[in-house]
Amino acid sequence: MKFVDEFREPEVITRTSEEIRRLADPNRHYRIMEVCGGHTHAIYRFGLKDLLPSNLELIHGPGCPVCVLPMGRIDDGLSIAQDRNVIFAAFGDMMRVPGTQGSPLEHKARGMDVRIVYSPSDALKLAHTNPDKHVMFFAIGFETTAPSTALTLMRAKNHGIHNFSVFCNHVTIIPAIRAILDSPDMRLDAFIGPGHVSTVIGCRPYEWIAKNENKPVAVSGFEPLDILQSIVMVLRQLKAKEAKIENQYKRVVPWEGNRAALRAMADAFELRPYFEWRGLGFISQSALRIRDSYAEWDAEQRFEVPGVRVTDPKAAQCGEVLKGVLKPHQCKLFGKECTPEHPIGALMVSSEGSCAAYFNYEHRKTATVTSIASVA
Amino acid sequence: MCLAIPGQVVELFPDQPTSAMIDVVGVRRKVDLGLLQDDLPVKGDWVLIHVGFAMSKISEADAADQMRTLRMLGEAEAAIEEIEGYGLENAESKKAS
């Protein structure tokens, strides 16, 4: 456990790890899902698995927006900017995500006007500075980024910027958790709740998980100690046969969330009847679309969108990995055809995707150990 | 995109109540305060920033913790790159000395 010394308060980390071992019943196997991709990244990066007993398994959840976006949506978004006087603006995370005809970056190499923006408001700024072009912002993300897109739409409308639109792919976390819990091949004991999504939605929306599903939830921060403390919280509940929502990340997450952000989302967005999630299929009321009052700024209403549906490559088992049924390395393509350099599935693209995190921290570590062993 | 970047409010603009100049380890950029309109920060406050929008007010100690977490996660450089990119500005020209 060489990592422990590098952490802040290593003695607290060690104590917390011991507490986890004490709380975990050796005759039981625990499956705890961390919903957020940021937590998945942190767990691999910090090697937290080494601090947990072998009968406690962390299952990586669907909280990586790039990973759950179906390929057809990328094709649809790119088709709008194809052969039109349209600037395709998106966050850097989107640039290498493959569509059937290549990623946004590859489209840029073929002549499409593709721009990286770090904020939706900068996409609006691009529209302002390029009045002879149309700027389409390819919006993606959970409730962490959706309020910013909502405010940007409000600003576009208020300032009368007409050469701007949003291709909205925002999704909401609660229906995805519900879909996972409804999945017949899934058995989970508890959840580590997402930290930054909860800054916006607060803790209340998780209450049904405790009340109806009888499973503990701890909303968690991203430091090693935060994640370990959250595991302690849910193990204590499991031991006491309780199920409630605990907020480990109180220093950032208010119980009621951010009301201004929720108001902005309610003003600009409404729920789609259903939306396709990569690996999870269609989930009802799981995504946001732009309200008719903003129709002029809705790329899907403004342009003809082909509505492409693309089946994931049969050999790739992204869906099973996303639901936590398979570990990343158990997919047939993992580390062979599918690597971070040449991703086939989206879980390999984003640093928050469980396959990329596993590849970068576990697989490379194992590969190094194996090659040292073979030399010896 | 999912980074939460801690920054300090160093300037407010009377004519632009929805924006503030923030400082993230020496890099200064304007961010949007629209999502904090119920509890607007004042000069000197610390905030967590997502995609160019201040999302929550935090303490100075929590801001330092968050920056350390980003460093430990290997994401501090990406965070600074994001801040430098706000406003579509050239990354190098506006660095505070």
Q: What is the string of helix and strand elements of chain B? A: EEEEEHH
Mean pLDDT of chain B: 90
Proportion of helical residues of chain B: 10-25%
CATH topology of chain B: SH3 type barrels
Strand order of the largest sheet of chain A: 2-1-7-8-9
- Which CATH architecture of the largest domain in chain A would you pick? 3-Layer(aba) Sandwich
- Apparent shape of chain B: globular
The stretches of 5 or more residues of chain B where confidence is low (pLDDT under 50) are 91-97
- Any idea what the radius of gyration of chain A is? 21 Å
Q: Given the helix and strand composition of chain A, which structural class is it?
A: alpha/beta
CATH topology description of the largest domain in chain A? Rossmann fold
Tell me the distance between the termini of chain A: 23 Å
What is the number of beta strands of chain B?
5
Strand content of chain A: 15-25%
User: Which spans of chain A of ≥5 residues are poorly predicted at pLDDT below 50?
Assistant: none
Description:
- The complex is a heterodimer of chains A (about 375) and B (about 100).
- Chain A is an alpha/beta fold and about 375 residues long.
- Chain A is built from 15 helices and 13 strands.
- Chain A has three domains: about 5-65 and about 175-245, Rossmann fold, CATH 3.40.50.11750; about 65-170 and about 285-300, HypD, alpha/beta domain 2 (Rossmann fold), CATH 3.40.50; about 320-375, no CATH class.
- In chain A, the strands form four sheets. In chain A, strands 2-1-7-8-9 form a five-stranded parallel beta sheet. Chain A has a four-stranded parallel beta sheet with strand order 4-3-5-6, sandwiched between helices. A two-stranded antiparallel sheet of chain A has the order 10-13.
- In chain A, helix 2 packs parallel to helix 15 (about 355-375) and helix 7 (about 145-160) packs across helix 12 (about 260-270).
- With about 100 residues, chain B is α+β, with helices and mostly antiparallel strands.
- Chain B has a single domain, classed as SH3 type barrels (Roll), CATH 2.30.30.
- A five-stranded antiparallel beta sheet of chain B has the order 3-2-1-4-5.
- Chain B is globular, with a radius of gyration of 12 Å.
